[in-house]
Amino acid sequence: MWKCPNCNRTFEKNEQPHSCKTVTLDEHFHNKELAKNIFKHLVDTINTRVGKCEIISLPCCIHLFSNYDFLAAILKKDRLEIRIGLYRTLSGPRVKQTFPLSQTSYKNCLELKSDKEIDEELIGWLEESYHLKEE
Q1: pLDDT given for residue 89 in this prediction
Q2: How is residue 94 annotated by DSSP?
Q3: What's the pLDDT tens digit per position in 14-28?
Q4: Which of 107, 112, 68 is nearest to 84 (CA)?
Q5: 108 to each of 19, 30, 59, 66, how far by Cα in Å?
Q6: Which of 9, 38, 50, 73 has a CA that sits 20 to 30 A from residue 118's CA?
Q7: pLDDT (tens digit per residue) in 47-75
Q8: What is the mean pLDDT of the chain?
Q9: Measured CA distances, 56 to 60, 61, 69, 115, 123 (Å)
Q10: CB 81 within 8 A of CB 49
């Protein structure tokens, strides 16, 4: 693991190219109350049921970091889009897209329209993603 000396973000590869630019969470939350509430409930659930995570707010999205970036969140006016990495693809009505990241890992894109969708199935997927790269 390598930590950027400028932004203090941690990456798998030494001197991995990235942008050090960050934005405030309020910039992501602006005019997106529903997604903000879902996001806050999601983070609270992860911190109490899965494990502690760090929030990294980038211009493109918000990342949740454990020992790696295990979740990316994009706030929309009417929903929260999340992307989680797993060693498998997911299926179901809230899974909107999956695509390979490598020969063994996949990015799974989901939509949450209510905090009630943060159920046992989703928590299981989040746990799997959170612990994916532990050794």
Answers
A1: 96
A2: T
A3: 766 667 777 888 998
A4: 107
A5: 23, 26, 21, 18
A6: 9
A7: 999 999 999 888 888 999 888 889 999 99
A8: 89
A9: 11, 9, 9, 21, 20
A10: no
